[in-house]
Structure prediction request, 304 residues.
Amino acid sequence: MSTQPQPPPQGLQYLFGGLSGMAATCVVQPLDLVKTRMQLSGQSGKAPEYKNSFEALINITRKEGIRNLYKGLSAGLLRQATYGTARLGSYNTLSNMFAGPENKPLPFYQKVLAGIGAGAFGSVIGNPSEVALVRMTSDGRLPPDQRRGYKNVGDALARIVREEGVTALWRGVTPTMMRAMILNPAQLASYSQAKQMLLTTSHFKDNFTTHFTASLIAGFVATAVSIPADMAKTRIQTMKVVDGVPEYKGTMDCLMKTARSEGVMSLWKGFTPYFLRLGPHTILTFVVLEQLNKSYKKYAAAKN
Prediction:
C-alpha cells in the first residue's frame, strides 16, 4: 500500500527556505541595488538621478564599477539566512498545520493567513540585515564625505549598534512588516494557488515547467502589491536624523510626503528593477526549494 509522501521535518523546511533564498540572491543582487537607487532617486523634491532602470544600471556601472553592483551581497545573504529562512520555513509549518495529518489541499484564505503570519515573523527576525542591505546598496549614490563606508554586513551591524544604538537595527520595522505581510501572501499564497490550479489541468505536471510558471505569476503579483511599502521602507531605513528630527515620522508620513511632492505614481518608482529582481528571485527560490524537497522525498523513499 502506497503512502502519501511526507514533507521534510520542520528543521529541514527552514533550512531549505534559507538556502533557496540565498541561491537566488547570488543571482539578482545587482537588480536589488538598482531598485534601491531608483527608489531613492528624486527624494525630498530633488531632480531624479536616473530616467529609468537601464540608465541607472549603466551609470552605476560606469561610475562605481561592475564589482559594486554586488555591493551589499553579504547583507543580502544574511537577510535570506534570517528573513528568508524564517518566512519560508514558518509558511510551510503553518500550511502543514492547516492541512492536518491528511495533508488536504488548503483553501486560498488559509494560504493567505499562512503568508501573513510568515511575513510578520520573518520581517522582525530579518530587519537588522535589511537595514544593513539598504544602506550598503545606497551608499554609492552619496557624496564621498557622507558615505558610511561599511566594509561588510558584520561591520555595518557593529557600527550601527555602536553609533546609533541597538534599536537602530529595527529602524523601519513597521514598513518592513507591512511589506512582508503584503508581499508574502501575494507571493507564497499566489504561488501555491497557481501551482494547484495548473496541476488541475491536463497540460501541467509537478515539474520544472509548472514551478517556473507558478513562480512567475507569483513574482508579478507580489511586485504590484508590495512596492509602495518597499519604497517607504527603503527611504525610512536610509534617512538621516538631523538635530534629533527624522525626515519621516513613519510609514504613512513617508508615503504621503512622497505622493505629494513626487506624484502618486512615484509610489511605484523602481517597478521595473523591483520586478526584474523579485521575479527571478521568486522563480529561483521556488525552483530550488522544490528541488530540495524533491531530493529529500527521494532520499526518504529510498531509506524506507
